[in-house]
């Protein structure tokens, strides 16, 4: 290869993987569309994103990240035909152009093959790494008639696949355009919400099953949108995690909850604790013991008064970096609780590996008590596990006296739910704590206005 050929090659190929780059892909896609239009046939574009690549890059280093990209490129290439084009679009995103397809079923078969191949373990030096592939698919001429539109729509479909749970594929639909626009608007509004103090915390009591007195309050973030009213956390928390806004949002929640707890402790409730939810994404973005310690010091709260609730899914994942950060938090003196316990459908061996202090029985197992024999068996088994491991136990979603009586009689020490108290503002909780025997509890006030 002479110098001119070398320059031309480098201009059209990715230096790391040797695959066609975005410019060459664009050329081939435009040519394929012209051919498909002339011959009245269909083609497909697959946008492929590597799940968890960012985590590998951040925690194992860029050398391992580059090696993973090279190995992934090899597996993707094995899924293509000679006439197809596999290109690296940028970062952890690859694109496959299928210049002639019979229909959606053929494309789906290719996508299934890719998900299977990329989902197998990668061996990087002395480590075994698991990632996955999410895929967005656009078809010509059904979804678009230009190269730019095909790439845009396949990218939108990739976003849909990731939002649906990753490690899957989705075909483009017209509704995705509306969804993407709405999501972009919501992201901008969430950024402004942090600046404009539109976010608030409400606190739900965790009570002693015998006395019904609060021993802790779980902090729950709420968004009071100036036009849309209360925005559900189910809408904005996943968006915050995806965009990285969960980092400043999570820090604000921790700071605000700890300051509020210090107020309550200053009122004489020295043993009261506050619980804050921490997501896997926060740990991926670098939440560490030093951050939590600085917040505790600034607010004057003891580490043992803070409970960090983590999902069972995070425990089951068992990533080394997450394990290390959780251990450091535990060493700081912070208490760790496993939220939604029982929904992981996997081995309980992680309870031996992680120094957790508390289990929270998922509300889905409490709903049917005491009439559902399945729920009775599951809850009794979880109570037995907690007792044998000397862990505190909280039952979530307690909504009536019969559920409370069942849990009390079985020895579940702590309960949480609307029957004990609805989420209330910090001020409302303060008023009740100041005169618990003279004023209505936040639960009673909320019920009266419901």
Task: Explain how this protein is built.
Its EC number is 3.1.4.52. It comes from Thiorhodococcus minor. InterPro entries: Biofilm_reg_signaling, EAL_dom, EAL_sf, GGDEF_dom, Nucleotide_cyclase, Rev_trsase/Diguanyl_cyclase. It is a single chain. This protein is α/β, with parallel strands linked by helices and 450 residues long. Helix 3 packs antiparallel against helix 4 (62-77). The strands form 3 sheets. It has an 8-stranded mixed barrel with strand order 8-9-11-12-13-14-15-16, surrounded by 4 helices. The protein is elongated, with a radius of gyration of 26 Å. It has 2 domains: 3-172, Reverse transcriptase/Diguanylate cyclase domain (Alpha-Beta Plaits); 183-449, TIM Barrel (Alpha-Beta Barrel). It is built from 19 helices and 17 strands. The protein has helices spanning 3-12, 22-39, 53-60, 62-77, 104-118, 147-163, 174-196, 233-243, 246-266, 280-284, 289-299, 312-317, 320-332, 350-353, 363-366, 373-388, 401-410, 426-434, 442-449, and strands at residues 42-51, 85-90, 93-101, 122-124, 127-129, 132-140, 169-171, 199-208, 214-225, 229-231, 273-277, 306-311, 335-341, 358-361, 392-395, 414-415, 424-425.
Q: Any descriptors?
A:
Alpha-Beta Plaits, c-di-GMP, 2 domains, alpha/beta, TIM Barrel, single chain, 450 residues, Rev_trsase/Diguanyl_cyclase, EAL_sf, 50% helix, disordered C terminus, 5-stranded mixed beta sheet, cyclic-guanylate-specific phosphodiesterase, 8-stranded mixed beta barrel
E-strand count: 17
Structural class: alpha/beta
Tell me the CATH topology of the largest domain. TIM Barrel
CATH architecture of the largest domain: Alpha-Beta Barrel
The CATH homologous superfamily of the largest domain corresponds to EAL domain
Main β sheet profile: 8 strands, mixed, barrel
Backbone shape? elongated
CATH class placement of the largest domain: Alpha Beta
Whole-number average pLDDT? 89
- Number of helical segments? 19
């Amino acid at each position: 290869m002479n110098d001119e050929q070398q320059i031309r090659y480098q201009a059209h190929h990715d230096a790391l993987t040797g695959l066609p780059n975005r410019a060459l892909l664009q050329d081939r896609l435009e040519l394929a569309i012209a051919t498909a239009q002339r011959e009245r046939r269909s083609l497909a574009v697959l946008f492929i994103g590597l799940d968890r690549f960012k985590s590998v890059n951040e925690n194992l280093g860029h050398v391992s990240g580059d090696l993973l990209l090279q190995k992934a490129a090899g597996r993707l290439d094995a899924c293509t035909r000679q006439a197809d084009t596999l290109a690296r679009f940028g970062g952890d995103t690859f694109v496959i152009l299928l210049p002639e397809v019979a229909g959606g079923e053929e494309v789906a078969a290719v996508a299934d093959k890719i998900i299977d191949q990329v989902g197998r373990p990668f061996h990087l030096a002395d480590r075994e790494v698991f990632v996955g592939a999410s895929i967005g698919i656009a078809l010509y001429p059904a979804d678009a008639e230009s190269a730019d539109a095909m790439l845009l729509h396949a990218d939108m479909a990739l976003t849909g696949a990731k939002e649906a749970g990753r490690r899957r594929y989705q075909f483009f639909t017209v509704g995705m355009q509306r969804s993407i626009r709405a999501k972009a608007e919501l992201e901008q509004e969430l950024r402004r919400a942090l600046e404009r103090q539109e976010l608030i915390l409400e606190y739900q009591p965790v009570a002693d099953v015998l006395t019904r007195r609060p021993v802790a309050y779980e902090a729950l973030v709420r968004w009071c949108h100036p036009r849309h009213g209360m925005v559900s956390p189910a809408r904005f928390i996943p968006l915050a995690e995806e965009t990285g806004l969960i980092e400043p949002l999570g820090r604000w929640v921790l700071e605000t909850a700890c300051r509020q707890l210090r107020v309550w402790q200053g009122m004489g409730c020295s043993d009261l604790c506050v619980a804050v939810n921490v997501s896997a994404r926060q740990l991926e973005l670098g939440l560490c013991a030093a951050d939590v310690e600085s917040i505790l010091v600034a607010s004057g709260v003891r580490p043992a008064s803070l409970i960090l609730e983590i999902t069972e899914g995070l425990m089951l994942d068992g990533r080394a970096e997450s394990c290390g950060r959780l251990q450091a938090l535990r060493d700081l003196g912070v208490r760790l609780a496993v939220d939604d316990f029982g929904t992981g459908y996997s081995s309980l061996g992680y309870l031996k590996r992680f120094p957790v202090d508390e289990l929270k029985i998922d509300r889905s197992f409490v709903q049917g008590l005491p009439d559902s024999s399945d729920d009775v068996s599951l809850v009794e088994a979880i109570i037995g596990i907690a007792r044998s491991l000397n862990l505190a136990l909280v039952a979530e979603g307690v909504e009536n006296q019969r559920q409370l009586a069942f849990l009390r009689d079985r020895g579940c020490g702590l309960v949480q739910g609307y029957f004990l108290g609805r989420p209330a503002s910090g001020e409302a909780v303060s008023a009740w704590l100041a005169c618990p025997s003279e004023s209505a509890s936040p639960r009673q006030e909320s019920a009266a206005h419901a």
